[in-house]
Structure prediction request, 256 residues.
Amino acid sequence: MAASAPVFIDVDGSNIAVRQVKGSAPGVVWLGGYKSDMLGTKAEALAAWAGGEGRAYLRHDYSGHGESGGEFADGTISRWLTQSLAVFRRFSKGKQILVGSSMGAWIALRMVQELRKAGNARVAGLVLLAPAPDFTVELIEPVLTDAQRQDLQEKGFFAEPSDYSDQPFIYTRALIEDGRANRVMTGPIDTHCPVHILQGLADPDVPSGHALKLASMLPADDVTLSLIPDGDHRLSRPEDLDLLKRAVGEMVRRAA
Prediction:
């Protein structure tokens, strides 16, 4: 079944594409990864699952991604966080489960912080796939080559080949500097809700040790860590999607 056409909202001058399926709460909110879009395999699998369950489901593309406007190279964690919060506040009602993939897990954790700061406690659970919070600080900066550092200084960005696209990944100086201001893995992370992490042990992009470090910073009695021995970063095989749907379904039941 083809996805319905998106609606668009303006967030600080960026035209953000949003898809929403109305249904019962707790709803599910999808937050995609770096340079991914809301019509990817995992997002679509969750859309079909939510439709079958009569569950509310919300997703959007960050600026410079998918069907949203704006330039990818202008994006930062702060900008994409602001857009995600605007979509959440405008389109969701009642309790919500945030499902964050890779960078989307970082966005999800920052959303919880910002929502609670504003007195909004509607996030009732987190499901994080191959989570990459603080990836600019923890995973990129420590391994920058001299050439990449020079490019950042002189050009404002560096590019590297992508295993997921014909186009290279672009990392800007603004993204890296802004990443430092959005760190979440600096001490205990109080989400005030249960968290389920799904991590592949064959992930070449986000090492399993990163997920273990994240889990160690979360409230232990509310964290489930599922390690998938042959799982890669995508976690998009049928068995991975089944695990994702079971994890989200269980989180929904706990929050209901």
Q: What stands out?
A: The CA atoms of residues 5 and 19 lie 7 Å apart.
